[in-house]
């Protein structure tokens, strides 16, 4: 059991970590998510019914954990606004300003990609997931459909809408810069 | 879809490098799993000890009740400060 789990970990660790990074973009947070994903895998591997492939199952857990982490971070941010009123020390707010620390992004593209990721954050969860899996993870429509539990046609439409919405948001930013 | 002059090119997402996860994550996972197993074991043990204690208490109470019903008349008379010759059952 333990050696089987270790094998699964070494096979999927980088896929899980990179997918988590696409959502969170902070190295330490993505490591936390990777840790949570594999603890969940360890806890429920015996209940895994093989109705989907192992990789699809692990991708689903990673997506759910990442979206949960984003929701938790948003709650924390909202709470920070409240505590800021009562607290004079800025220490607890420092970590919230560091929102982009993706180790896979090159320095010269950091600023542009940070803006793109920030706009992606405003997309609905389904559109964001479809875009991440297609553009960053290079998954086919059929694979994305299996991971998201929807039809390939629905994936195509989600990716299309995500691209349109993202382009609109990015051209707004560019328009504001000029 | 996107303007050819746009600096915010969505296709840049395709060129993000894949990165390796730090080896420390594996050790953290192992520690967490070990802690979870220890916690599960102690919860299991607490239940076992709790049930055993409840069983012992129940058995003791059963014995105590059965003995209480069998108290001889002499002892009862003593308890109520009566002479042992006093016929309690009349």
Give an overview in words.
Chain A is globular. Chain A starts with a helix and ends with a helix. The model of chain A is unreliable at 91-97 (pLDDT under 50). Chain A has helices spanning 2-24, 27-44, 54-86, 91-97, 110-121, 125-136, 141-148, 152-177. With 178 residues, chain A is an all-alpha fold. The longest helix of chain B is centred in the middle third of the chain and has 46 residues, at 24-69. Chain B is rod-shaped and about 115 Å long. By secondary structure, chain B is mostly helical. Chain B has two helices and no strands. Classes of the chains: A mainly alpha (178), B mainly alpha (90). The A-B interface holds A 9, 13-14, 16-18, 21-22, 31, 34-35, 38-39, 42-43, 102-106, 109, 112-113, 115-116, 131, 135-136, 138, 163-164, 166-167, 170-171, 173-174 and B 1-3, 6-22, 24-26, 28-29, 32-33, 36.
List keywords for this structure.
heterodimer, A: 178 residues, mainly alpha, 8 helices, 78% helix, 0% strand, B: 90 residues, 2 helices, 59% helix, rod-shaped
Looking at how many chains there are and whether they match, the oligomeric state comes to heterodimer
Average pLDDT, all residues of chain B: 81
The radius of gyration computed from the alpha-carbon positions of chain A, rounded to a whole number of angstroms, is 18 Å
**Biggest sheet statistics of chain B:** none
- From the N-terminal CA to the C-terminal CA of chain A, the straight-line distance is 59 Å
Share in helix of chain A: over 70%
Elements of chain A, N to C (H/E) = HHHHHHHH
**Which strand-content bin applies to the residues of chain A?**
under 5%
Following the backbone from N to C, one meets helices and strands of chain B in this order, namely HH
Distance between the termini of chain B: 108 Å
Poorly predicted runs of 5 or more residues of chain A: 91-97
């Amino acid at each position: 059991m333990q050696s089987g789990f270790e094998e699964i970990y070494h096979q999927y660790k980088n896929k899980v970590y990179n997918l988590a990074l696409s959502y969170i973009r902070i190295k330490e947070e993505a490591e936390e998510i990777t840790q949570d994903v594999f603890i969940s895998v360890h806890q429920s591997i015996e209940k895994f019914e093989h109705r989907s492939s192992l990789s699809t199952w692990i991708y689903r857990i990673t997506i759910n954990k990442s979206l949960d982490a984003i929701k938790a971070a948003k709650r924390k941010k909202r709470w920070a606004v409240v505590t800021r009123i009562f607290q004079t020390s800025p220490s607890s707010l420092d970590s919230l300003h560091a929102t982009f620390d993706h180790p896979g992004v090159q320095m010269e593209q950091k600023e542009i990609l940070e803006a793109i990721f920030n706009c992606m954050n405003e997309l609905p969860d389904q559109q964001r997931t479809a875009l991440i899996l297609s553009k960053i993870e290079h998954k086919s429509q059929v694979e994305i459909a299996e991971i998201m539990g929807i039809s390939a046609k629905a994936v195509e439409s989600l990716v299309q809408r995500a691209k349109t919405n993202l382009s609109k948001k990015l051209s707004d930013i560019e328009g504001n810069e000029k | 879809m996107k303007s050819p002059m746009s600096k915010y090119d969505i296709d840049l997402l395709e060129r993000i490098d894949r990165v390796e996860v730090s080896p420390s994550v594996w050790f953290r996972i192992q520690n967490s799993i070990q802690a979870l197993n220890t916690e599960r074991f102690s919860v299991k043990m607490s239940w076992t000890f709790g049930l055993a204690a409840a069983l012992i208490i129940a058995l003791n109470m059963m014995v105590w009740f059965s003995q209480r019903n069998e108290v001889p008349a002499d002892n009862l008379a003593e308890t109520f400060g009566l002479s042992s010759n006093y016929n309690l059952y009349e």
